[in-house]
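So, can you check this one?
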Amino acid sequence: MAVVAQLAGHSRSAYTTSPVSDPSTSPRTRAWVEVRLDHLRENAAAAQRAISATAGLVPMVKAEAYGLGMLPVVDALRTLPGGVAPWAFGVATVSEGEKLRQSGYDGRVLVFSPTPPDEYSRAAAARLTIGLSEAAAVERLAAAAAGEAEPLPFHVEVNTGMGRAGFPWQEARTWGPAVAAAMGTLRWEGIYTHFHSADEPPKEPTEEQVERFRAAVADLRELVHSPVLHVANSAGTLRFGGFGYDLARPGIYLYGGRAGPDTHPRPVVSLRARIVLVQDVEPGATAGYGATYRAAGPERWGTLAIGYGDGVPRALAGGGRVLVRGRSVPIIGRISMDMTTIDLSDIPAAAVGDIATLIGENGTARIDVDDVAEQCGTISYEILTRLGSRLPRVYLEREQGS
């Protein structure tokens, strides 16, 4: 396995393909996140196979590629299996798009969240493609693009039920002409919507949204020439094949999170930490704030160099487990900001320096990111995006022939 190591917060130039071996500089001395870039690309390939052969992919790399590091992920996905480049990369904010531009990426960048009024000039200067949800936003972007050499492309979001953004689908004949009237400094390139329940077992809500989208597009046909149409998030891609539209926008599936029933991505993320203390305790010994755990008999405890300050959810206390030497052991007591206590009584050989796996594979045992999310009553998106900046990201590639 080739190692590509990058410390959190460093620029793209900070990582190389050389294995890290010096313990004093290794990112694996305390706690870290491993990212399988080869599995990331395999998941992208699966998403591409799920949609039309002529459709393009827009990998979503917002929120630092769901916490894994936007620039290394973009580098890994610049060329998709089959030698095809992504149609665009998707972000949520203008600053994320600017970061991509500063890294040297000159392809399309789609910004999907509504843009604050004072950021349109920056978006125009960076040649970002903005998703617009109201007539006032179209006017702001048109004014910001007035000094550009070429018309600035934009996409219109249609609200088909998500509610958080987008023009109302049933009023397309009203707002459509207002959008078209702003052409000149702008070019209306695309129309899209976002699903609210595509990852849920019932398919009817998603199919209803698609029907609403089709109705809106039909009402806009005379106003925009051959728009690029897209509706599919990860679930819409894997479960519905993107509905045959021009683009698909996979996100969580790329990073190893399930996108609804019967979607099985390759695991991408592992979260690991060192055992930094092992101690034998007497019956009645207590662990953690509030002394919520008490030893029933003689026990052996280990302290992990990781806590909620690194993004480990406190909800894992009282039921969460980690893997040590290929075996599952419980988290005991409350999780602290910087430390987590585990019960090593069933692994007497465990020692300081051993690696504990909170997400990922160890021996034949595995904890998936969705397992952790379910334990915490949340979703895999939140687990990944909460992984803290002091955790180094270690990027792994499978070597040829291995």
